[in-house]
Amino acid sequence: MPENPYDQIAYRTYPRRQTHPDRLAAVATLFGMTPAPVTACRLLEIGCGDGGNLLPLSYTLPASRFVGIDLAERPIAIAQRTVRDLGLANIDLQVRDLRTLDRTDGEFDYILAHGIYSWVPADVRDRLLAVCAERLSPQGVAFVSYNAYPGQYERQMLREILLRRGDDMDSARDFLRTLPHSEAAAIAACPDDILFHDILAPVNHAVWFEEFASHARVHGLRYLGEADPHDKFDETGALQGEGGEQQLDFRKLRRFRQTLLCREEVALDRRAGPERMDAFLFSENPHGRRVAGKDPAVEGVAQALHDIYPLPVCFAELIPYAGSAASLREILFAMLAAGCVDIHVHEFPCAESVTERPCASRLARYQAKTSAQVTNLCHLPVQLDERARRLLPLLDGTRRRKPNETLHWMAQMALLEG
Question: Is 181 helix (H, G, I), strand (E, B) or coil?
Fold first, then answer.
């Protein structure tokens, strides 16, 4: 049997906040669903690799249950070793083909399939959506990412050139650097795993949004939204329904989607507006654009979110910065449309200050022993410098900090156990 390409060249996995059940539940709540509680849910990740995304979820949500499957044996073996080392009892990792999943595996409140749909043959794509339809609980949410047109055309063009040339990765990079094209330069700068698995993979199937939505409907699934809620707003700040999504892709030249699906019988309420903001917690999205204008209330809310980042804060705590609840609703909805804030329904288990005996998360301490990248308790990757990497394993709650040593940066990175 030929070696699995994901055993041949490891594909890096890391925490993706857009896949956290908190994000899926927040978008579902925004559009009128009643999703399963984040702290007591059942979640399946298809293509979990070495568990960089799934294991932190298992660690921070001990009362939830997690199943991860992948065709590659080596990444699963690595993930299983981590499970044993951390003593995680709520996760099951399997070397398994998604086509073997059936009703005996039970229902899941959340299903994640990142980086699968566009990189597998047509029959597997079809089975992926069938599994989502069969295995989702009545109010369940599935996350499916895929390459999208029209934005993917440039990258597809370059991919086809490289495949026609028969380049290996080194010669592909050398050739790309000779091309007067910004996308060629971006691909040339990709790490090996991205170039090998995403660009030069035997299958790289991009679709128009309308095609994907139609494929989902064949299997009894309906379009819910995007994992980044601001992707559903146009340039004027107007929220688009499913009918406007393809037009949005035309205007944004979107090349990648992180789409959320639910069962077709679920009743959705698309009339999301400022009045729904009371139900959520909010955190700063440092990648979003600023809301236009110099309104002091807007600046006050933005600064408050910035000061506590990456932790989320509830609606009521932000009212003083906006002056009134009514004003805050308008501000937060505008910030959501602009991508300045993320919405949450879950309070992450992080400390907001440093105790006399600092205790970083056991997961982060474990990761720091072998890597400069660790996962914080808000499900975000944190890059450590060498000093921080050597310090982190020592923060196990047994050592006193010096009187003048606040370690404030540890709390700001949300690495301290709550």
Answer: coil
SS3 assignment for 268-289:
CCCCCCHHHHHHCEEEECCCCC
SS3 267: coil
Half-sphere exposure of 108 (CA within 13 A, CB side): 28
Asked if 257 contacts 228 with a C-beta cutoff of 8 angstroms, the reply is: no
Q: What is the pTM of this model?
A: 0.94
274-344 folds as Arc Repressor Mutant, subunit A (1.10.10)
Q: Which CATH class is domain 5-149+206-263?
A: alpha beta
Q: Are 342 and 17 in contact (CB under 8 A)?
A: yes
Domain boundaries, the chain: 5-149+206-263, 153-199, 274-344, 362-412
Q: What is the pLDDT along the chain (418 residues), one digit of tens a residue?
A: 456 777 777 788 899 999 999 999 999 999 999 999 999 999 999 999 999 999 999 999 999 999 999 999 999 999 999 999 999 999 999 999 999 988 888 999 999 999 999 999 999 999 999 999 999 999 999 999 999 999 999 999 999 999 999 888 899 999 999 999 999 999 999 998 888 888 888 899 999 999 999 999 999 999 999 999 999 988 888 888 888 999 999 999 999 999 999 999 999 998 889 999 999 999 999 887 666 667 899 999 999 999 999 999 999 999 999 999 999 999 999 999 999 999 999 999 888 778 888 889 999 999 999 999 999 999 999 999 999 999 999 999 898 887 666 666 677 678 888 6
